[in-house]
Amino acid sequence: MKHLIIPLFIMNRGCPNRCVFCNERITAGDFDPAVEAPVFRHTVESHLAGGRGRFDRVQVAFYGGNFTGLDLGNQQELLDLVQPYLERKEVDSIRLSTRPDHIDEPGLRFLKARGVRTIEIGAQSMNDEVLRLAGRGHDAAAVRRSVTLLKEEGFETGIHLMAGLPGDNKERFLEGVDEIIGLAPDTVRIHPTIVLRGTILEKWYKEGRYHPLTLDEAVDLCAAALLRFKSAGIPVIRLGLHITDEMRESSNVVAGPLHPAFRSLAEEKLFLDAALELLKTIPPDAVEVRFSTSPRDLSLFKGTRKRNMDALAKIRPGFTVTVDADPSLPRDTLKITVDRGRHERALGLPEILRAK
What we know:
With 356 residues, this protein is of the alpha/beta class. It is built from 14 helices and 13 strands. The strands form three sheets. The protein has a seven-stranded parallel β-sheet with strand order 1-2-3-4-5-6-8, covered by helices on one side. The protein starts with a strand and ends with a helix. The model has no long low-confidence stretch (mean pLDDT 93).
């Protein structure tokens, strides 16, 4: 299904504190947190005009800040802006993001009655020490409680995670991924921690108290998380930060693994790892291997600037590796053919990499 999400940003409204990594003027853009009616209508109608008839579902989304931390009057004002579009069936429902410690049954029923169907929770981590160092002001138990309540009330539920937060490491992060999988959200977003101007994290970085992940470390870690979510059938709807105009200004991003095609790098790594695993299964005297993928995965298999192909070409002298597109293959599947049919098999990436 094709979904259109129309984003509105309430910035830091409703937030009881500022997290050490947060500067929403940079990550979201320079929006007016008041969301005045004329700006709201212009935003919604311009998106609808550009996408009319092309999408199966249309949602208005209130991102940034802490929507359920607003008082009910402010929540009502924002939700009222959407009601005419819901009544005319131009918009199907409302999506919002919020904190796990500002979720309760009366509040959820209030939201449901006004067209909210999807709620994304900013968990960021499932480790209490990491959450403390990040200045989140809640613990992992709050995430568990909020997701349970959301599912009981019938909301589509999303969870945000961050890799490379202060105090985090590979083991803690992937333990958190496994715990999130156990909560069975409908979707997940993941992005590596970036050091932004004007944050506490910038101060810690300059003092040598915080060291961000390198790009390779972030790709490896997020690729491992992506594989686990793929294996569990949980869609990762965003991997890496959306890069705003403000983030393109070099003074605003102090350090960290920011990359405009971060998801592609993680997907490419999975395909390279899978190809290397399959090559371990072929006869030792094989001289030619052809890999096949879905046409939509072909560029991911080849890698940025064909670096995956270059890596595979170095396996051993005189060994030929090629790749082609096979429309009969589903996405995230890799087929290997050895010496023009001597050996052949097709497997999904999670199955190939399950032991890694």
